[in-house]
């Protein structure tokens, strides 16, 4: 996971070993290496520029704390700036709540909906799922099959074209009985107007406590655009990055997080219903920098 990025970052910082002062040339070289590593991991250009400017400024201006070597000091700056880029981890409470899922087709939204249901069920919360994806044939069956395996109820009406009607009915059927309600919505291959229009309307009638965006870790620069559109439409307050078990570079997803000014709430790390992890930015970046 993100190994290439991790190795390039490590190499970039390693060059500072043995140096007792950091001069401009060394910082320039470090920043160039950082830029190369982040850009090839698909992190958005604007973010890379912001990060490298902060690293450069701080590395040149800030004195290392007493007893800290130059390399450790710069490593710490890089680390802090990367944490800032990623944002704080998104909040996940165990209060009763309604969660609206957003994302394009193929992002892993349906699988993640079931994984989340499993997560809250394991925390002892009565959880129900609503399938409001009226666009993709078979969406309800897919979600129902996953939910059946964990004995979580799945509300849906295959054949009903009106997603809003499904959400209204589902909520009134579930609200009294269930503490956590997760609404899966339609996705499309592209950011079409009807998709955005529909999720705005669902958001208005459901008043969800959270609006989480599901992003495939393999997405490159388009991730920012997706995040921006969904964020403008409904105000995304958490991002779930799926397929982190794959070979994906992950930088696109980081850019998406920055775009929504939210944080990563979970990471999808496999195809089974248990493959969902809470996101820990410190651990994540420590692993990247080694
Ligand atoms: P949707 O169209 O967004 O609802 O996407 P699906 O939930 O149907 O997922 C698309 C594909 O991605 C399926 O084959 C899932 O098994 C797979 N998938 C989803 N999340 C993950 C993940 O975290 N890791 C891996 N390896 N595959 C995933």
List keywords for this structure.
11 helices, elongated, binds guanosine-5'-diphosphate, alpha/beta, 8-stranded mixed beta sheet, 8 strands, 290 residues
Describe the model.
The protein has 290 residues and is an alpha/beta fold. It contains eleven helices and eight strands. It is 50% helix and 14% strand. The protein has helices at 3-14, 24-40, 45-61, 70-86, 109-122, 139-149, 163-174, 193-206, 222-234, 251-260, 281-289; strands at 97-102, 127-132, 154-155, 180-185, 210-216, 238-242, 264-268, 276-278. Guanosine-5'-diphosphate binds next to helix 5. Residues 96-290 form the SRP54-type proteins GTP-binding domain. Part of the signal recognition particle protein translocation system, which is composed of SRP and FtsY. Archaeal SRP consists of a 7S RNA molecule of 300 nucleotides and two protein subunits: SRP54 and SRP19. Its main location: cytoplasm.
